[in-house]
Task: structure prediction
Amino acid sequence: METALERTLTIIKPDAVRAGHVGDVVKMFEANGLRIAAARMATLTRREAEGFYAVHRTKPFFESLTAFMSSGPALVMVLEGENAIARLRKLMGATDPAKAAPGTVRKLYAQSIERNAIHGSDAPETAAFEIAYFFAGIDLV
Ligand code: CMP
Result:
């Protein structure tokens, strides 16, 4: 597989922050070749959550998802590394924690398919949109 230095956006979601798993998840990033290029704690407004998840606006879970995502502080980060997008997706595990592989963030820390501990960009185009949604170029170190 070809390697490329990439950036991806992750959110440690309100359920995982509330449960005190920030340190554990960040440790997993660093142990798996994902360097922190930017980080910000934020309690998203409902509008901010709706804008972020706009691609899901027609889904039946949209209302509940955006209420959950704006329910408390989250840690929004840009991660950088070789094939960072795929690397993070593998480390996160499947959306539904019941289907996530052992040792993944969601297997370890997610509560349900909605309250699933972490978000990660799924493709280069979404990573570009999601990084720009939260950070200016000058914020990336
Ligand atoms: P995420 O990877 O952030 O992308 C979209 C989010 O929608 C997903 O994680 C879950 O939090 C949520 N989600 C996806 N599928 C469902 C579902 N079937 N029911 C409820 N929430 C879902």
Q: What stands out?
A: The longest helix spans residues 124-134. The pocket of adenosine-3',5'-cyclic-monophosphate is lined by residues 56, 61, 65, 95, 113-114, 116, 119 (CB under 6 Å).
